[in-house]
Design goal:
Layout: E1 2-10, E2 18-23, E3 45-46, H1 49-59, E4 63-67, H2 75-87, E5 91-96, H3 105-113, E6 116-119, E7 140-143, E8 159-163, E9 169-173, H4 177-184, E10 194-196, E11 199-201
Helix pairs in contact: 1-2, 2-3
Bound molecules: iron/sulfur cluster.
């Protein structure tokens, strides 16, 4: 799979603690997509299921979330990935901008294999920052694994701040402008705030 970015131990893209992979490339190209840096199919790094399983174990994560870009534009590799990580005991949350009726046979297979699927286009006019796991109100959550059928899916605004080993801050989810400003001015010094395909880097 061609992967643009990974974060570990996230709790805002599915239940429990998750390794989140943003896949490179999207052919859907929704209006006002804020991940348009991930549209190109050039770029990213090839990651194998074995590499990612090892990293998720090190992080103590329960599952994987596949985001985009558009994961189903890499359907054969994604199906292989899902099979391998589920065999290793991880659950899978799959995001797709496709509607279910648009799926090809290999894409349908990925949806059927995943434990939870968030599907549908991002529609800017229907954007809400208070939707659990989703960006716009038309998007739907499909739960394929009964283990997750009792989840609380009510509205909540979520944001996470990740700090890497060299002190770089990554903010994902829906931060308020005030929160971003306060992080950017930490230690009393304004630092640069850069919007990236999947969040903000400081
Ligand atoms: S919102 Fe998702 S599906 Fe839509 S263009 Fe952006 S990356 Fe692609």
């Amino acid at each position: 799979m061609q992967v643009a970015e990974v974060i570990y131990s996230s709790q805002i893209y599915g239940p429990g603690k998750r390794t989140v992979l943003w896949l490179q490339g999207c052919s859907i190209q929704c209006d006002h997509c804020w991940n348009d840096e991930l549209w190109s199919f050039k770029g990213g790094i090839k990651k194998s299921p074995a590499q990612m399983i090892e990293a998720a174990i090190q992080s103590g994560d329960d599952g994987f979330t596949l985001l985009g870009g558009e994961p189903l534009d890499q359907a054969p590799a994604v199906a292989h990935f899902i099979m391998q990580v589920q065999s290793a005991g991880f659950d899978v949350v799959l995001y797709t901008g496709y509607e279910l009726h648009e799926l090809s046979t290999p894409q349908k297979k990925c949806v059927q294999m995943s434990d939870i699927v968030i599907h549908g286009r991002y529609v800017h006019e229907l954007r809400s920052e208070n939707l659990l796991w989703r960006g716009s109100t038309n998007q739907e959550i499909l739960i394929n694994n009964s283990k997750f059928s009792g989840l609380d899916l009510s509205e909540k605004r979520q944001v996470e701040i990740h700090l890497n080993e060299i002190g770089h801050v990554k903010v994902v989810g829906y931060p308020t402008p005030e929160l971003l400003q306060s992080i950017a001015s930490r230690n009393g010094m304004m630092t640069s705030l850069k919007s990236t395909g999947n969040g903000y880097e400081i």
